[in-house]
Amino acid sequence: MKYNRMKTREVKIKDRVIGGDHPILIQSMTNTRTQDVEATVAQILTLEAAGCEIIRCTVPNQEAAQALEQIRRRIHIPLVADIHFDYKMAIAAMEHGADKIRINPGNIGGKERIRAVVDCAKERGIPIRVGVNSGSLERDLLVKYGGVTADGLVESALDKAAIIEDMGYDNLVISIKSSDVMTCVAAHEKIRDRTDHPLHVGITEAGTITSGNIKSALGLGLILGQGIGDTIRVSLTGDPIEEISSAKMILRTLGLRRGGIEVVSCPTCGRTQIDLISLANEVEALVAQYPLEIKVAVMGCAVNGPGEAREADLGVAGGNGEGLLMRHGQIIRKVAEEELLDALRDELEHWEQG
Fold first, then answer.
1. C-alpha to C-alpha distances, 282 to 89, 279, 303, 306, nearest whole angstrom
2. Which of 66, 235, 236, 335 is the most buried (most CB within 10 A)?
3. Chain segment 234-250, per-residue pLDDT in tens
């Protein structure tokens, strides 16, 4: 499927570029205390290894701002400073090496304070992400639209971007997020033809691993499927590493990113004679170690497994103490159930990418 990608300008963040025809980049946010340099660096390096391409850290105080300098030297991806309320923290973060800042101009004070931030960003060529979400919508817009609405989010974001543009700076990224999926989708549909700034998209406060993944997959699927979005974050209440795997899965499912092994598995049924749930989880963990672009099927029925796995490059099916290893739907080996995972590993080790 081909997407009619929204035409946006390019914004450079350290050595990465978002917008234009560049790939949609995956972001996450640390949940450590930023001033704890060791813990923050360790978490970022773990996220990098998982596929995170832009990382954001909160900067609530001077100590956290100063820590950015040490953190940035030890990581390999762009570092974004998340700022709320105190414009001085935005300036301090840029002075200590932030590659980008995230602010809501509506909560850091009057125009002179905004100008001070903009002047600092302009001097250093640092992009500003203008972030608006349903919880930060101004009172006058809540009254005007009768609550949090897509129109209110769009108007707020464009007003904030215009303030910065009027100060002679347009190196901007916009985000308009809501925890309500359909409000968030509608807001992105409405802003599409009203700006050419790159859009950072996501469902804010999506929830825990299960509910957050469902809401994010639905929301991001509907938004990205319309060609909207240049960088994404799956916001989950949990280990940030989960955000990366979910984001990669969403992009791969939509055909917007290649790379990595896709695992498909059948639901259990009365014919299942193998611990399919454990096997599928073990296979998913195993294939994450291999930089291949193939599909692996995990089937619980040796009767229908070969047929159901025909579209996969590799497949395993088990039942009654034994397992089948398949390549392109054809059975190539029959092994004991406890040897099935090792047989798959051996096949992956010797797989030649076509």
1. 45, 5, 22, 20
2. 236
3. 999 888 999 998 999 89
pTM, entire model: 0.86
- The answer on pLDDT for 1 being more than 60 is no
pLDDT of residue 318: 75
Torsion from C-alpha of 275, 281, 285, 286, nearest 10 degrees:
30
The encoded tokens of residue 148 equal: 């949090």
Selection from 200, 196, 238 nearest residue 220 by Cα: 200
- The Cα 15–Cα 190 span in angstroms is 31
Give strand ranges (E) for the chain: 11-13, 16-18, 25-29, 54-58, 79-82, 100-103, 128-133, 172-177, 200-201, 231-232, 262-265, 295-299, 314-319, 322-327, 330-336
| Mean pLDDT for the stretch of residues 104-111 | 78
Tell me the CA distances in angstroms from 269 to 274, 275, 320, 345, one per residue in order: 11, 11, 14, 26
What is the DSSP code string of 146-209? TSS-HHHHHHHHHHHHHHHHHTT---EEEEEE-SSHHHHHHHHHHHTTT--S-BEE--TT--BH
Q: 341 to each of 122, 246, 297, 335, how far by Cα in Å? A: 55, 24, 12, 10
Contacts of residues 317-323 at CB distance under 8 Å and 24 or more positions apart, as own/partner, are 318/273, 318/274, 318/276, 318/279, 319/271, 319/272, 319/273, 319/274, 320/273, 321/273, 323/274
Question: Distance between CA 63 and CA 80 in Å, rounded?
Answer: 16
Task: Average the pLDDT over 266-280 and give the result.
Answer: 73
